[in-house]
Amino acid sequence: YSFFEANQWMLVLLQPVILRAIQIRIIKSIGKLKIDNSLIKERWNGFAINFAAFIHNCTDIAILTIFTDLKTVSIYSVYSLVSNGLKQLINASITGISATVGQAYAKNNYDELNRKLDIYEYVVFLLVFFIFTVAALLITPFVQIYTNGVNDTNYCQPYFGVLLLISEALYLVKFPHMSLAYNANKFKEITVPSFIEAGLNIVISVALVHKLGLVGVTIGTIVGMSYRTIFHVYFTSKIIPDRKQNIFT
């Protein structure tokens, strides 16, 4: 255990050192360039979007902690282990596609951009549909096995499990369109919708948590995610003229 732990720490410590060495090498190869502050003019909008994402990620746990008990929070945490793991798996699978979409946008080649965005959509949609459908069928049995012998509360929550996976699926489905907005430097235009999504999530979750508990909080997340997904699909048609949606029509 100590050997593997030492290796993990070594990798963590070496990463910034290696990245710094690469950065210095790149800077030397580029030479002295005039600083162009206009390239980071959208930094505060980018910060606002990340802050809204932070609110989204913390809303459910915060509301459950305030308005329910720790047993309910425990149930949410166990089920979220599955949903977060699947989200990370799909994120790792599609990370490289976003760069190709950004490259096509930078070249102003709308035919190539439409083609690559279509591929991006199909890959994400098929991965999400297949993986999350299987997960929806198996998440509750998995949690029951995982918590076997733990009798502090009832971990058999099939409706909550399915709704939680739906909310995370909606979060992933919008990725192609959100990535395009980032690549197009449209941070200002998508800042307000990101806060509207967070606001819808908070208001609806607080309104429903007393009566529906875990399900109520998840419904709030689904409504917020649905709004944000619809907005980004609509906003894509603003970025790409005459864009025809193949999946979302």
Automatic annotation (TrEMBL):
Keyword Transmembrane on entry: yes
Keyword annotations: Membrane, Transmembrane, Transmembrane helix
Transmembrane segments: 119-139, 159-178
Protein's recorded name: Polysaccharide transport protein
Lineage: unclassified sequences, metagenomes, organismal metagenomes
